């Protein structure tokens, strides 16, 4: 789950890393660039409590890989260069994916611990997200070093890996997101 978390949070850092490119290559001004960062920040953080309410009410293990994919595809679609509104919409999709991921994934980590304290497990989970965020500039640099659309689609690779890593354990899928008490996500 920690590695999967890294694959999602890389997209939070990717938006900020893309700003210099958007300013220099698309001639976005300061206000336009700030609007893109605002869209990503608002949707990845302010909307997250709404997904938390949903995750509190019912398990949604299917949302974990789906939100991971949305985060990656959104950032990759920035490369389509279909204009400023489309860029904001792509970043918004990514932010929405990031927001949807966290409550559902945290619920899975918590239930995999069987209701125990799990502070160290949650710390490892959080560390994965921080590593992903920190690696984002490297990912963006690598992707933008490849000419054409192929470079932009390289940005989807962490999402593909994350969707694979973040697929709920078979037992959680059968029980709607809960893992047997005392079982880890790997054991389930």
Short description:
The chain is mainly α and 188 residues long. It is built from 9 helices and no strands.
Textual characterization of the structure:
- This protein is mainly α.
- The protein has a single domain, classed as MFS general substrate transporter like domains (Growth Hormone, Chain: A), CATH 1.20.1250.
- The protein has 9 helices and no strands.
- Helix 1 runs parallel beside helix 4, helix 1 packs parallel to helix 6 and helix 2 packs parallel to helix 5.
- The radius of gyration is 17 Å and the shape is globular.
- It starts with a helix and ends in a 13-residue tail after the last helix.
- The C terminus is likely disordered.
The helix count comes to: 9
What proportion of the residues form beta strands (DSSP E)? under 5%
Largest sheet: none
**What is the rounded Rg?**
17 Å
Number of domains: 1
Name its key features.
disordered C terminus, 9 helices, 188 residues, mainly alpha, Growth Hormone, Chain: A, 0% strand
SSE layout:
Blueprint: H1 2-25, H2 30-46, H3 48-57, H4 63-77, H5 84-112, H6 119-145, H7 149-154, H8 157-165, H9 170-175
């Amino acid at each position: 789950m920690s590695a999967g978390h890294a694959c999602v949070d890389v997209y939070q850092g990717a938006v900020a890393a893309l700003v210099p490119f958007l300013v220099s290559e698309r001639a976005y001004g300061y206000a336009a660039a700030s609007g893109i960062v605002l869209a990503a920040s608002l949707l990845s953080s302010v909307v997250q409590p709404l997904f938390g309410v949903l995750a509190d009410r019912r398990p949604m293990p299917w949302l974990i890989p789906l939100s991971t994919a949305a985060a990656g595809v959104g950032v990759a679609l920035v490369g389509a260069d279909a204009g400023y509104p489309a860029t904001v919409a792509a970043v918004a999709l990514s932010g929405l994916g990031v927001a949807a991921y966290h409550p559902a994934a945290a619920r899975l980590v918590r239930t995999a611990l069987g209701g125990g304290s799990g502070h160290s497990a949650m710390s490892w989970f959080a560390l994965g997200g921080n590593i992903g965020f920190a690696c984002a500039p490297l990912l963006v640099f690598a992707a933008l070093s490849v000419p054409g659309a192929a470079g932009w689609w390289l940005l989807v690779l962490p999402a593909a890996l994350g969707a694979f890593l973040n697929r709920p354990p078979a037992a959680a899928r059968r029980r709607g997101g809960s893992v047997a008490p005392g079982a880890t996500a790997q054991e389930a």
